[in-house]
């Protein structure tokens, strides 16, 4: 049995952007959807590692050949942040069960700096069940960088080999295994229960 269970946030506990959220960003940007999303994800790693929101959208504009004015940048930032605040209540309930059972829980998330206080203000009650929350924007490295997994384990006071890591991204799961963690690609809350029972 692992000493600690380390969860990814987005795609496991928190929800990915909805189609409505995406369409709102497309309307605000005025950029063709394919070009917008290609740039959005291609430029995301520095943003996850601590780049400011204003600088991210300035870089987006430069890549897309668009000069976003200050009002548009603010609207894009606000809409983008809001689009990442939904959660799966079934996973939140599972975290409560694990916490009540005395399990040591950790969080390792690629997350942008401006989103952290918004997300924590909205979801502080269940986030408090984690003994350690490791955010890419605060440690300066993002998954699948091996150092992110080592830091997450250290924050929990254990070695990587003592952790079970759950993430919906296969690249992150592979990287976690390379650091010594047991790791599984997330599919559902029931799958997490089966993995822990085994």
List the keywords.
5-stranded parallel sheet, alpha/beta, 11 helices, 2 domains, 55% helix, single chain, 198 residues, Rossmann fold
If strands are numbered along the chain, what order do they take across the biggest sheet? 3-2-1-4-5
Task: Let me know the largest β-sheet.
Answer: 5 strands, parallel
Shape: elongated
The CATH homologous superfamily of the largest domain is named HAD superfamily/HAD-like
Taking all Cα atoms into account, the compactness measure Rg is 17 Å
What's the level 1 CATH class of the largest domain?
Answer: Alpha Beta
Helix coverage percent of residues?
A: 40-55%
Number of domains: 2
Secondary-structure-derived class: alpha/beta
- The share of residues in extended strands comes to 5-15%
N-to-C span: 9 Å
Total number of strands? 5
* CATH topology call of the largest domain: Rossmann fold
| N-to-C SSE string, H for helix and E for strand | EHHHHHHEHEHHEHEH
By DSSP (H or I, 4+ residues per run), the number of helices equals: 11
The unreliable regions are none
* CATH architectural type of the largest domain: 3-Layer(aba) Sandwich
Mean pLDDT: 97
Structure commentary:
With 198 residues, the chain is α/β, with parallel strands linked by helices. It folds into two domains: 4-15 and 86-197, 3-Layer(aba) Sandwich (Rossmann fold), CATH 3.40.50.1000; 19-82, no CATH class. Helix content is 55%, strand content 12%. The protein contains eleven helices and five strands; from the N terminus they run E-H-H-H-H-H-H-E-H-E-H-H-E-H-E-H. The protein has helices at residues 19-29, 33-42, 44-48, 53-64, 70-82, 89-100, 115-127, 136-139, 146-155, 170-178, 189-197, and strands at residues 4-7, 104-109, 132-135, 163-167, 182-185. The chain has a five-stranded parallel sheet with strand order 3-2-1-4-5, with helices on both faces. Helix 1 (19-29) runs antiparallel to helix 5 and helix 4 (53-64) packs across helix 5 (70-82). The longest helix is centred in the middle third of the chain and has 13 residues, at 70-82.
């Amino acid at each position: 049995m692992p000493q600690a269970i380390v969860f990814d946030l987005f795609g496991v506990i928190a929800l990915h952007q909805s189609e409505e959220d995406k369409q709102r960003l497309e309307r605000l940007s005025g950029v063709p959807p394919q070009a917008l999303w290609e740039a959005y994800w291609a430029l995301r790693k520095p943003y996850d590692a601590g780049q400011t929101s204003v600088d991210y959208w300035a870089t987006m504009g430069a890549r897309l050949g668009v000069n976003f004015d200050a009002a548009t940048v603010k609207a894009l930032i606000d809409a983008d942040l809001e689009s990442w605040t939904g959660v799966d209540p079934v996973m939140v309930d599972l975290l409560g069960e694990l916490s009540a059972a005395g399990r040591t829980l950790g969080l390792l998330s690629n997350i942008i700096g401006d989103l952290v206080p918004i997300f924590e203000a909205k979801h502080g009650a269940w986030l408090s069940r984690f003994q350690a929350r490791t955010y890419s924007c605060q440690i300066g490295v993002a998954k699948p960088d091996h150092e992110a997994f080592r830091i997450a384990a250290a924050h929990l006071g254990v070695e990587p080999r003592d952790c079970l890591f759950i993430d919906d991204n296969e690249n992150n799961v592979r990287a976690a295994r390379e650091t010594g963690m047991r790791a599984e690609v997330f599919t559902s809350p029931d799958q997490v229960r089966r993995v822990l029972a085994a």
